[in-house]
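A favour, since you know our structure tokens better than I do. Would you make up a two-line entry for one protein for me to read? Write everything out right here, beneath this request.
=====
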Amino acid sequence: MAWSKLKLDEVRVRRTELLKLRREGVRYDDDRIMQLGYASTEAARRDLNRALEQHRDEERAEVSIYRQMENERLDALLEACWPQATKPQPVLDKEGEIVGTTLDMRAVDTVLRLMDRRAKLNGLDMPAKTEVTGADGGPLAVSTADPDKLAALIASTSRLDSPAPVNTATSTPDEDDEDEDPAG
């Protein structure tokens, strides 16, 4: 049996209030959520999930409609450009005589850009694969390093004229430093 408009409006109002309370951080077991008319915290949780899923379905439908409209626009543009891009046009000399034929390269470029746009819109392009390699395309060398050796390496390759950085994470004060008075 289909729900009445009144019942649908009640559900919509209850879900809107539930969403508002959840955005404020109110827990499902809070009295304010139970006062909305839910039988249990689990019923409130399920209703919120249904509301979110319904919203996702509506968004998917809107995206699908937009994609269809854009495809129709691209079809119209492609139809207008296709003849100029695919049919050779005569090349005339100074006297107006045909000396050859050529394609309209601007039209070809436009067609290629339209096709590229369609591929992006419809997700037809394969994702670009990237690979991190070592020297000369070989395997990437991975090793562990002693923090002090790493600090020395950084210092030796540094462009700044500064002393080697101190590794404070693993450095320990010298025994002489411990005996000194921190106040100076």
Notes: The longest strand covers residues 98-102. The mean pLDDT is 83. The chain has six helices and two strands. Strands lie at 89-92, 98-102.
